[in-house]
Amino acid sequence: MLGFAAPAAKGAFSRETRGMGSLRLERASKDYLSDGSRVPALREVSLEFQTGEFVALVGRSGCGKSTLLNLAGAMDFPTSGSVWIDGVDTSTLNDAALTRIRREKVGFIFQSFQLLPVLSVIENVELPLMLAGRADARAAALERLAWVEMESYANRMPYQLSGGQMQRVAIARALSNSPSILLADEPTGNLDTATSDVILALLRRVADETGTLVMMATHSLEAAGLAGVIVRLRDGCVQEVVAGTKAVPERE
Ligand SMILES: Nc1ncnc2c1ncn2[C@@H]1O[C@H](COP(=O)(O)OP(=O)(O)O)[C@@H](O)[C@H]1O
Ligand SMILES: [Mg+2]
C-alpha cells in the first residue's frame, strides 16, 4: 500500500485527503409525500460507520439506497430519527452550517458523472476549491487529478473523455475539499465491467489510503464484493449487515 508520505508518486493520495469520517443513523425514517399519499422510503434505519470504511448499499431498485445516501450527505433530512455526520446531528444545522458541512465534509459521485459540460476537466475540479476560498485552487486541482491519474487530461472538455475517465474526474472533484465522507450513487452503473473494476479499485483506495468513509449504492454484487461492509436494504429496512472483503485489490 502506498504511504501517505510518498512524495507525489503517480496516483498516490496525499495526506491532505485524509478525512476523519463518521456517520451514524439512529432510527432514521424517511417518508415522501406523493400525490397526497405517504411513501415510506426508509424505516427506522440504525447504522454506524467510521473513518476508512468502504460500505456498499445493496438491494432492489426502490429499496431506499439513494434516500439513505441523501440523508448521509445532509442533502435531505429524516422524517423521524436522526443522522449524525462527524458527531453533528444534521437536523440541528442552520442554512449556513449546512452549506459548510456539505462543502467540507461530504463528496458525492453519481452514475451520470455530472461534470459541468462547459468547464474543462481542471476547471471542474477547481470550482469547489475556489468556492471554498482556496488561493491555491489550480495547483490543488492538478494534484487531485494526479491522484486519479487524469492530470494529462486537465485541459480537455468532459465530452472528450470516456465514461471511466469522466468518473475519475468526478472522484477528483468529490475529493477536492478533503471530505470526511464520499457518497457514491451507482458509480459504475454506466460503465463496462473492466472500467467498473478500475473505478471500484480507486474507491477502495480512497477508503484505505485517505481514511475517507466511502458509502456506495450499487446493483452490482461484484461491486459490493469489494466493500468491507455490505448493507442489504429491503423496502426501506436494513435486512442484514455483513462483512465483505478486507483484501486490498491489486493496483493496475
Ligand atoms: N422525491 C420523491 N418523492 C416521492 N417518492 C420518492 C421520492 N424519491 C424516492 N421516492 C420513493 O422512495 C422509495 C425509495 O427510493 P430510492 O431511495 O430512490 O431507492 P433506490 O435508490 O434504492 O432505487 C421508492 O419507493 C421511491 O419511489
Ligand atoms: Mg437510487
Quick overview of this protein structure:
The protein is α/β, with parallel strands linked by helices. The protein has helices at residues 65-72, 95-105, 121-131, 137-147, 163-174, 193-210, 221-225, and strands at residues 22-34, 37-50, 54-58, 80-85, 88-89, 106-110, 181-185, 213-217, 229-234, 237-243. Magnesium ion (MG) is lined by residues 65-66, 185, 217.
Helix content bin:
25-40%
Determine the CATH topology of the domain at 20-116 and 179-243. Rossmann fold
CATH architecture of the domain at 20-116 and 179-243: 3-Layer(aba) Sandwich
**What is the radius of gyration computed over CA atoms, rounded to a whole number of angstroms?**
18 Å
Sheet with most strands: 6 strands, mixed
Bound molecules: adenosine-5'-diphosphate, magnesium ion
Content of β-strand = 25-35%
Oligomer: single chain
**CATH class designation of the domain at 20-116 and 179-243:** Alpha Beta
Class computed from helices, strands and strand pairing: alpha/beta
Secondary structure tally, helices: 7
Shape summary? globular
- Report the end-to-end length measured between terminal Cα atoms: 13 Å
Helix and strand run = EEEHEEHEHHHEHEHEE
Overall mean pLDDT score? 90
Low-confidence stretches: 1-8, 247-252
CATH superfamily of the domain at 20-116 and 179-243: P-loop containing nucleotide triphosphate hydrolases
How many DSSP-defined strands? 10
Q: List the strand order in the largest sheet.
A: 6-7-8-3-9-10
